[in-house]
Amino acid sequence: MSVGQFVFMLHSHLPFYRKAGMWPFGEENLYECMAETYIPLLNAISELYDEGIKAKLTVGITPILAEQLNDEHLKNGFVKYLDSRIESVAKDLERYPDEKVPHSQHLKYLAKYYYDWFTNIKNSFVNKYGMDLIAQFKKFQDLGCIEITTSGATHGFSPLLATDANLNAQFKVGSDTTKRLFGKKASGCWLPECAYRQGYQYVGKDGQKHWRPAIEVTLQNNDIEYFFTESHVIEGGNSIGNRRVIGVYGNIEYIPLPERPATGYDTYSAYWLPDAQVAVMGRNERAGYQVWSAADGYPGDGCYREFHRKDANSGMHYWRITSPKTDLGDKMLYDPVLALNKVNENSDHYTTLIYHMLNDYKKATGKEGLVMVSFDTELYGHWWFEGVEFIKQVIKKFNNYVPEVERLTAGEYIHKYPPKEAIQIPESSWGQGGHFWVWNNHLTEWMWPIIHACEKRMSAIADKYPEIPENKLLHRALNQLARENLLLQSSDWPFLITTWQAKDYATDRFREHVDRFEKIADMIDSGNINDWELQQIESIDNCFSVIDYRVYQTIEEGVIPQQSAKLAPLYN
User: Fold this and answer.
1) Of 71, 76, 226, 482, which residue is least crowded by CB atoms under 10 Å?
2) pLDDT (0 to 100) of residue 167
3) Range of the domain at 169
């Protein structure tokens, strides 16, 4: 007898790194995630399928990431990256054992472990998958093992975009790209950064009150049926981010919002949104926190591989976490067997936890409930090296030992158990504090007038060419202008600036896309398009090959009757 449903959602996203640096920021970030996360995940799904088990994972792949996984330059670059890793660790095999180095026999063992590991990853990519990861994800989608969801084309921060034409373009280009690459239109969507805003009224330049629709209206217009959000958005209270000690980021101080009153709703079911027939499901806080928390979750266990310490010569991760209080220089050497035993223990605990949560909910309410968990895919493998094996074991144990928990993809859940009521959710995100601060603060506020100016210029130019021009050079320029507009809108740039993870790199990348946008726009407006300069830009920013610039033509927002209502500011 079923005790409830379990939805495991993975959100895969990286910014556009193609021909934009290598290390520490650039293409190598993509290659690391391909090696440590995406290929191991495909291997796990494949191995489960060979055992007669469908993974039933919901795998979000943002369109801009999918474009990169499908790019020949990056595919070839990945093979070179793997060759360099194999060459580096081969040199470690030669220098160990070394009687001058403590525990050098174990270091030799670890070097062989990594040599075999990277060799296997290369074999999977080149021979098993034919260097085509997109085709493999599509294969397992078509076999019913996974469901692929879409997102904004370049992960633009939806609530802060100034116009509906630009908001629609993010999801239209995103949805179309997902369908083109995976052969099927996605029914689900990951809102970039889980960022949501309601519909609102504003006074336009004509002095009239206008209505700007809620984000779910744009989703419905693009045939998107559901999206995900954080637990606090459904339940009220504070986000987990609000519970952290106030810290200083650069030269600004984070101030949390006041706690929201409890709503009386929980995340054990999905809900309709009020303005369109689009459903929302919230992440279960307890089940999510157990995994992603560095302090209290599984990845922080001392047996697992230490991410931050690398060998000075080869760059290999030869150490384990040991303890959160242990200095990097004092870490113990990694033991893959010990780590695998810990994965077995943690996956036992997790399957038991999910079962009891659902069983307790059913006992308390008399009805079956949902536990939905969502994570950045890159947590598994890249950050938590053993994480993909954890996913595999959790799925296998649910299938073999806990059949009372019904495993479904998100779309399967929505269709089988459609929401029974609608709720209004607040302006929110999954960033610190649960609001927009991470992307709009004193370090990043200079970016938004630029983004809004580009939005308006893009639509103004698109409006001048309602039909595709016969001039092929002009047509190329219009489409490349649309690509640059999407790329400069990426939420990654303000995020990396705020967190100081790659402040200078993100600033430079944003300015580069703005400069390319303005150069192309000036050429179009002047009627003097330089073919060579356009080709140079096209050779770098080649994403969304079939984009149609007309997606940016102005969408008129309706004038509403002069009635009392709360007004929101119009971006100027």
Assistant:
1) 76
2) 97
3) 4-301+345-434
